[in-house]
UniProtKB/TrEMBL annotation:
InterPro entries for the chain: ERV/ALR_sulphydryl_oxid_sf (IPR036774), ERV/ALR_sulphydryl_oxidase (IPR017905), QSOX_FAD-bd_dom (IPR040986), QSOX_FAD-bd_sf (IPR042568), QSOX_Trx1 (IPR041269), Sulfhydryl_oxidase (IPR039798), Thioredoxin-like_sf (IPR036249), Thioredoxin_domain (IPR013766)
Single GO MF annotation: protein disulfide isomerase activity
The protein's name: Sulfhydryl oxidase
Compositionally biased intervals (Basic and acidic residues): 563-575
Chain intervals for the UniProt region annotation (Disordered): 542-597
Pfam families: Evr1_Alr (PF04777), FAD_SOX (PF18371), QSOX_Trx1 (PF18108), Thioredoxin (PF00085)
Organism: Eleginops maclovinus
Length: 608
């Protein structure tokens, strides 16, 4: 299933864009590796505190192009090892690199070379000629390279990778400490323990040590019978087996990273740190308990509150493309926001109003007036408070709005998957990925973080066309979100209490994770099932919500009894009901035919 975002990238690469642009694009700053050139190769590898594993490639070499996805995947797989060993590339087809490639004796492409930590200036690297260049093999070679360092040139930040003995480990049992110690007991030829040691390199609060299955006194004392196993010594002196659903590297690393008190060490980031920001702050005084396996209506409402009352407010007049994007966004939410409560009514009324206005320009103040004043009269309102729940940050400035915007769009993609005809007759139903297209245009036009918008636009331009149906739409957004998580892990916007990591974690969805040839692999069928459940209407908790989830139904014209509020039924019948509702609302809100009856100053504004 991966093909739908992978394929367009490959297509792009082999298309005749010319050598320069292809080479410029084979690896980009977004990839988790270092792009080297003649000016920084030697300074990087000389006397470096970490080892280096480099690929010298040529952007015109077809094999290099084909291999680039594997090399990127490897770099992503070991990006948390970078204080011990770094992955880089250098393009020998760039004119400025001709001389340095000659000096480093590069004759064929790709050529792989590694440099030990603290290499002298004269070092030109040791070639790696292993026939197998698959991720698992190269990763194990990287571990071997690290282990071949002597005590004198050992990379400073690389923890010991040797096995510990029972004589060293057993005395720790029952001792208090300021951190966890995880003992991974495994067969001598297994790499899992060393890989987990390196995976946790950037995390504080836990130390991982490796021990061998040959160490019988240790096995007896810890009652270990299967390998690999993890035994955990807690800071308070207690100790126990660590339970994981699958005995795989990814599961061990994920569980250890989420132990209470274990935190990623923050690294300086070039990305813009994006938190809730803006003019509004959460009024929160106390922490709101929540479950990470639920989605909270309060987060979705806070997203819309921020979006309508803060983000949009920076655009004093909406016109042209901005107006169209806003209309489409409102229509999308009105059709797909689950539940049918006050939020839906508000968005429906707003959508009807926007669509009924034959005007090329609308002042923002008019939108605000409608949302804040006119609709309230009929009991339709959107809580005017930021109330983060699943998007709470451990301190002000972290999480909040961007978290809730992701959440909102995940909900909308899942809802579109569940109600395929919901967008019929809106003008948005044409393409295969209408939710993503609106999201793309919204982010590009209004999202306050410009750099985020640029990143997202690049990703959309590269692969959105490959999305063919609603399921792929759900998965594309999930995958794109994980790419952003990857990029931001350890950055300043990474909340230490909610570290960015591949999502869903094994504890949320064990069946979403597999391993193939030693490399973590998503089971996308199960991911899709999980996303449908997690972001589905029935998993949205009303706890902490400020807006009524259900409005009292208007009396039936025939019986005078309240009508049942539901969102099912045939499209035609639904449309009739919708029009009747709209007429009623426009009457009660004082809006008619695109005019506000008795409106304030904005009504007299010359809109045309
Ligand atoms: C379109 C967009 C682009 C952005 N680009 C950047 C950027 O370039 N640089 C930058 O610094 N910040 C960027 N941000 C902000 C950043 O992604 C985070 O939203 C922000 O740092 C807050 O992080 P968070 O910890 O709340 O988790 P978020 O990443 O915001 O995730 C919110 C919640 O969604 C769930 N979730 C996590 N991953 C997934 C997934 N793969 N699929 C489905 N659900 C998931 C989790 O429950 C998580 O708590 C962007 C935000 C958006 C909406």
């Amino acid at each position: 299933m991966l093909w739908f975002w992978f394929f367009p990238v490959v297509l792009w690469l082999v298309a005749p864009h010319g050598c320069v642009s292809t080479s410029a694009r084979l690896y980009t700053e977004e990839d988790p590796l270092v792009i080297l050139s003649s000016s920084n190769l030697k300074p990087a590898v000389t006397n470096s505190s970490s080892a280096w594993f480099l690929q010298f490639y040529s952007s015109w070499c077809g094999h290099c192009i084909q291999y680039s996805e594997t090399w990127k995947a490897l770099a992503r797989d070991v990006q948390d090892w970078q204080q011990a060993v770094r992955v880089g590339v250098l393009d020998c087809a760039q004119e400025e690199n001709f001389d340095v490639c000659k000096e480093f004796n590069i004759k064929f492409y790709p050529t792989f070379k590694y440099f030990r930590a603290h290499s002298p200036e004269t070092e030109r690297g040791t070639p790696y000629r292993g026939a197998d260049r698959e991720i698992q093999s190269v990763r194990q070679v990287m571990v071997n390279i690290l282990q071949n360092h002597t005590q004198q040139d050992w990379p400073e930040r690389c923890p010991p990778l040797r096995p510990y003995s029972s004589a060293e480990l057993l005395p720790l049992l029952g001792q208090r400490s300021d951190q966890y110690t995880a003992i991974i007991v495994e067969e001598p030829d297994s790499y899992v323990g060393r890989e987990v040691v390196l995976d946790l390199l950037q995390f504080s609060g836990v130390e991982v040590r490796r021990a061998l299955s040959l160490d019988l006194p240790l096995l007896d004392a810890l009652k270990i019978t299967t390998f690999p196993s993890v035994y955990l010594l807690h800071p308070n002196g207690s100790h126990s087996h660590l339970h994981v659903q699958k005995q795989l590297r990814f599961f061990f690393s994920s569980v250890l990273r989420t132990l209470a008190g274990v935190q990623r060490r923050v690294r300086p980031s070039s990305s813009t740190a994006v938190g809730q920001g803006g003019a509004l702050q959460d009024q929160q005084s106390a922490w709101r308990d929540f479950s990470s396996s639920e989605v909270y209506a309060a987060d979705l409402e806070s997203a819309l509150h921020y979006l309508l009352r803060v983000e949009l407010a920076t655009h004093s007049t909406l016109q042209g493309e901005e107006l169209q994007v806003f209309k489409d966004f409102v229509t999308l939410v009105s059709k797909l926001y689950p539940g049918g409560g006050s939020v839906v009514k508000l968005m429906e009324t707003l959508s009807d109003w926007l669509l009924s206005l034959p005007l090329p320009r609308i002042p923002y103040q008019a939108v605000l007036d409608l949302v804040d004043n006119k609709m309230r009269i009929s009991g339709v309102f959107l809580g005017a408070e930021l109330r983060w729940v699943g998007c709470q940050g451990s301190r002000a400035g972290l999480r909040g709005y961007p978290c809730s915007l992701w959440t909102l769009f995940h909900v909308l993609t899942v809802q579109h998957d569940a109600t395929p005809t919901a967008l019929d007759n809106t003008g948005l139903e044409g393409g295969a990925a209408p939710v993503l297209q609106v999201m793309r245009r919204y982010v590009r036009t209004f999202f306050g973080c410009e750099e985020c918008g640029r990143h997202f636009e690049r990703a959309a331009a590269a692969s959105l066309e490959g999305v063919q149906n609603r399921e792929q739409q759900v998965l594309w957004l999930w995958n794109q979100h994980n790419t952003v998580n990857d990029r931001l892990a350890g950055s300043l916007s990474d909340d230490p209490l909610f570290p960015k990591a591949p999502w869903p974690s094994p504890s949320l969805c064990a069946s979403c994770h597999d391993e193939k040839n030693g490399v973590h692999e998503w089971n996308q069928d199960n991911v899709l099932l999980f996303l449908r459940k997690h972001y589905g209407a029935s998993n949205i908790s009303p706890r902490y919500s400020l807006s009524p989830q259900r409005l009292p139904a208007p009396p039936s014209p025939q019986t005078g009894q309240p009508q049942e509020e539901h969102r099912g039924g045939g499209a035609e019948e639904k449309e009739k009901r919708r029009r009747a509702r709209r007429r009623r609302r426009l009457r009660t809100t004082g809006l008619r035919g695109g005019r506000v009856v008795g409106a304030g100053s904005w009504a007299s504004t010359a809109w045309t």
